[in-house]
Amino acid sequence: MRRPVIAGNWKMYKTQEETRAFFEAFKPLVPATPECDIVVAPPFISLAIASAAAHGSPIMIAAQNAHWEREGAFTGEISMRMITDAGGKAVLIGHSERRQYFGETDESVNRKVKAALEAKLTPIVCVGESLAQRESHLTHSILKRQFEGGLDALTEHEFSRILLAYEPVWAIGTGKTATPEMAADAHRYLRELAATVFSPSQAAGIRILYGGSVKPDNIKGLMAQAEIDGALVGGASLDAKSFAAIVNF
Ligand code: 13P
User: Fold this and answer.
1) Is 172 a pocket residue for ligand 1 (Cβ < 6 Å)?
2) 192 included as an active-site residue
């Protein structure tokens, strides 16, 4: 049985003060021993504050990105070690907005995944097709390329430490959720890839989250699919009540 994961990606939202206020409101709304793993990914500048605010709660803090080098002359970048130092336990890698607007490739995703594992962070590796790709029936070939490229040369043990997030680009921030069946189909395909590239037992264990316009009113239907192990929530994770409603689905 795979334990569900509900993760919130705050993107470029919330100041430090707003971060404190969120946790004050959110913590009482979730049980001390919830039935799923809870992750919140604030902007870098609020990582330490979020970690302190989440201390003693079951909430795990994640970064939204990081560089693969340990340190160096990389102006504006943050290393994996800086994230762990700030209390982060996980890191989103290869979010479609990073791929679309900041030129991330399967190769940079792969370097980041390896660096995150080395730093003992949980990589949350994001994959997903655009609308044009879906309409051209390229969904599976895009997922295959992203999966094989992003996770290239990982050992089975390393693979067992990651989380995958399927986020169809056309469903992000658009209010258009993939139907539970569409999401499940993509998840099933990713699991097949995991069986081929790694092993059937790895495929059975990997947790795959769905992301794209997840809200309190559609989480139940998504989670009813055996293939869907959790959600990566954008907009609806910014509000303590709505994120708690998703966590408590
Ligand atoms: P929305 O939930 O706002 O569609 O964002 C999804 C997402 O990109 C989470 O990483």
Assistant:
1) yes
2) no
Answer whether 232 contacts ligand 1 (Cβ < 6 A): yes
Residue 164 near residue 211, CB atoms below 8 Å = no
3-state secondary structure of 7: strand
The response to whether residue 212 sits with its C-beta less than 6 Å from ligand 1 reads yes
Asked whether the predicted pLDDT for residue 1 surpasses 90, the reply is no
Give the tens place of pLDDT for each residue, 197-225: 999 999 999 999 999 999 999 999 999 99
pLDDT value at residue 190: 98
The range of the structural domain enclosing residue 60 comes to: 5-247
**Active-site annotation holds for 95:** yes
How many alpha carbons lie under 13 Å from residue 233 in its C-beta half-sphere? 28
How many structural domains compose the chain? 1
Query: What is the CATH classification number for the domain harbouring 85?
Result: 3.20.20.70
For residue range 34-73, what is the model confidence (pLDDT) as tens digits? 999 999 999 999 999 999 999 999 999 999 999 999 999 9
At residue 74's C-alpha, the angle toward residues 70 and 77, to 5°, is: 75
Q: Which atom of ligand 1 is nearest to the CA of 165?
A: 10
Nearest protein CA to atom 5 of ligand 1, as residue? 234
Exposure of 41 by Cβ count < 10 A (0-12 exposed, 13-18 middle, 19+ buried)?
buried
